[in-house]
Specification:
7-stranded antiparallel sheet; binds arginine; about 15% strand; 11-stranded antiparallel sheet; binds glutamic acid; about 675 residues; alpha+beta; 24 strands
Length: about 675
């Protein structure tokens, strides 16, 4: 075990230093930020945020599924997250006859709430610094086993600051989660992929679920006998909103950031990885969109896939623009030169040279890996072929062989043109030579694989077919072997060398800049970010206000454009100004607030996170960042970076006036 030169004093200093609005802080160490938070408008205590002794705000927050956040808003297990986080579930329950994606869904009583096999929500029970235990030679596996208490909890040990610190996270995982409500996509996904990552924004991006538990309030598999879960804590909702400058904080599960990497990684992202991945996804999206425009069933079938592919595709474009605009590579190079000069004669001397050299070695493997993931594994048939024994009829519900074939041709062509011969499986080169062209190979593959359509699969299954002889399974095995052995093994070995160097470089950066706030990179563990409601200068002379309203939705409304075609009921309500208790004066008129901006440092995974005021009351649900912010995973800019939330008053208005499910609001605590 290496030595931990990383002293507690250094960590304390790192956590206390102030750095405007940047940072995702560990809830158990939030005490070190409390003075700064209070100075900016926070009115509670560190114990209110996180406590192991009493119910705290953390007990009202969940990891929703495997990549979103959510919050409890009633004493009867009612949970809010984003529409795009519940999208898979809403789609799962949708068909051409019951098109909940298009029309929305509202359970009018508990018996109408819909179960979702496989969906879980996880509550953080506690987190604990286990660095000393790991350092003393205990294995992470043993620590995790002990924390699970024989299966009562789920647990993991996560590294922070490149293995300079280790934390244990213990979760309670609930498995009976039911869909309670979702607005029509024309509200929940208003603006679609056109407005995604953009401001001004008018998306009612929320959905409603309920957690069920057994009679003892403990996690249980779905059962009609289960009862609504009683949370330790649920959020009070503020119906007063927040004004520009008001304090807010976001409490949720940010996925991945890399703020402390070298210029090499940024250069790789900007000049190699992003351009390749963006191009591959453009090709896929063009094929899927054309098929969707031609056929309504295909539009529903590929809606979720299209949204997923387009989301990262657009983010990477914004990220690349931001990294270029901020000259992040050059800035990092200049920082590295200063670091090197300072590091002479210290234990950190030479660490950057070693990192640069390792990255140069890594590059061919890293880019090949991108092509494997974004081209080969983007072919759905190749995905099926990776798990023939676990496939069921249901896997083919949203699958079009015709679309997949077109994608396969484009992806294999790109792969062949861009990947070095040594990383192309011999099996594929031989078959390609036999067939004569990529098109002919794909024809042959789809004609002969029993996995290439639902009918072929079902009859093969009934006939006891040996799937190990299937051409798609053979293809998958051939690609997997190269991906694992020639690419993956080298990539993993080099990457672990790089991590070992970062372990040193991270400590070096902290020693080099003792005044700087070094929050740990996001790793899908619970974090607090804080900042004020704020607009931003979008371009020279253009200031973007932090609030949008229903009036803006009406301005965008256009029945001819799918992404902007709102429900008639919303037009009618606007025409009669029948806003009930949800109407306010905002942006100079009587309206409904829809979305707002704040300076919270967030990333993917923060979707569905509560955004709270200084008293810990729910102001809205985080769902996005602005396009100009998306480089913040690598380089945060306090002047520009803004998170986007749907205003809770718009959520309540839609539940009440569009969904006719006002009875749900009676369950909530409004202030
Ligand atoms: N950009 C948001 C996030 O990263 C929302 C994505 C879902 N919406 C969409 N139109 N694809 O998850
Ligand atoms: N929409 C993202 C999510 O699903 C959040 C946006 C971001 O990346 O900040 O987590």
């Amino acid at each position: 075990m290496k030595k931990f030169l990383f002293s507690l004093a250094a960590l304390a200093a790192a956590m206390t230093a102030t750095f405007a609005d940047e940072g995702m802080w560990l809830p158990s160490l939030i005490g070190s930020r409390i003075d700064d938070m209070k100075a900016k408008g926070f009115e509670l205590t560190a114990e209110d945020i996180y406590s192991v002794n009493q119910a705290a705000l953390k007990d009202a927050i969940v990891l929703f599924g495997r990549g979103c956040s959510g919050e409890l808003v009633s004493a009867e297990g009612l949970l809010l997250t984003n529409h795009h986080c519940g999208y898979g579930q809403i789609q799962y329950h949708s068909s051409v006859e019951h098109d909940y994606l298009t029309n929305g869904f509202w359970a009018m009583n508990r018996s109408e709430e819909l179960p979702n096999p496989g969906l879980t929500v996880s509550f953080l029970q506690r987190m604990e610094d286990v660095t000393a235990r790991i350092e003393a030679g205990e294995s992470a596996e043993a620590i995790v086993e002990e924390a699970k208490e024989g299966g009562k909890y789920a647990a993991s040990v996560e590294s922070l600051y490149y293995n300079n610190k280790f934390y244990l996270f213990v979760y309670q995982v609930y498995r009976d989660i039911r869909l309670v409500g979702a607005p029509p996509s024309s509200i929940g996904k208003f603006g679609g992929d056109t407005d995604n990552w953009m401001w001004p924004r008018h998306t009612g991006d929320f959905s409603v679920f309920r957690i069920y538990a057994d009679k003892n309030n403990q996690p249980a598999d779905y059962s009609a006998d289960n009862v609504p879960y009683t949370p330790k804590r649920h959020f009070t909702i503020s119906t007063k909103g927040a004004a520009e400058g008001d304090f807010t904080f976001v409490y949720g599960f940010p996925g991945t950031t890399r703020e402390y990497v070298t210029s090499d990684f940024v250069d790789y992202t900007l000049n190699h990885s992003n351009p390749a991945k963006i191009h591959l996804r453009t090709l896929r999206l063009d094929i899927i969109s054309a098929a969707q425009e031609a056929d309504v069933a295909t539009r529903i079938m590929y809606a979720s896939k299209h949204a997923n592919i387009a989301n990262a595709w657009k983010k990477w474009q914004g990220e690349s623009l931001g990294l270029a605009r901020r000259h992040t590579v050059e800035k990092k190079l200049a920082y590295e030169a200063r670091f090197d000069a300072w590091a002479k004669g210290t234990e950190y001397e030479g660490v950057l040279d070693k990192l640069h050299a390792k990255y140069a070695e890594l590059l061919p493997y890293a880019i090949t890996r991108d092509y494997y993931n974004e081209a080969i594994y983007a072919i759905e048939l190749v995905g099926f072929a990776g798990r023939p024994k676990r496939l069921t009829e249901a896997n083919y519900k949203d699958y079009s062989p015709a679309i997949d074939k077109k994608i396969a041709v484009e992806m294999l062509r790109e792969f062949g043109e861009n990947v070095k011969a040594e990383f192309i499986p011999e099996w594929y080169s031989a078959k390609l030579a036999e067939c004569g062209s990529v098109e002919a190979f794909v024809e042959w593959l789809f004609a002969n694989s029993r996995l290439a359509s639902k009918d072929a699969f079902m009859s093969a299954l009934a006939g006891g077919y040996d799937f190990s002889t299937d051409p798609a399974v053979e293809m998958r095995a051939a690609f997997d072997k190269v991906a694992r052995e020639s690419v993956g093994a080298n990539y993993t070995a080099l990457n672990s060398d790089i991590t070992a160097l970062y372990n040193i470089y991270m400590r070096g950066q902290m020693a080099f800049e003792p005044e700087r706030a070094f929050y740990p990179d996001a790793n899908l563990t619970l974090r607090v970010a804080y900042g004020s409601v704020a607009g931003y200068e979008a371009a020279d002379g253009i200031y973007h206000k932090p609030y949008t309203t229903l009036d803006g939705i009406i301005e965008k409304d256009n029945p001819e454009i799918y992404d902007y075609d709102i429900p008639q009921s919303l037009r009618d309500i606007y025409a009669s100004k029948d806003y009930g208790r949800w109407g306010v004066e905002l942006n100079g008129h009587y309206t409904i607030p829809v979305a707002f901006l704040a300076k919270n440092h967030t990333t993917g995974g923060n979707s569905g996170s509560p955004i709270l005021n200084g008293r810990g009351e729910l102001l809205g649900i985080n769902f996005d960042r602005t396009w100009l912010s998306t480089m913040s995973d690598l380089d945060y800019d306090p002047d520009i970076c803004r998170n986007i939330s749907v205003d809770i008053r718009y959520v309540l208005f839609v539940i009440d006036k569009i969904g006719g499910a006002g009875y749900l609001i009676d369950e909530m605590t409004l202030n």
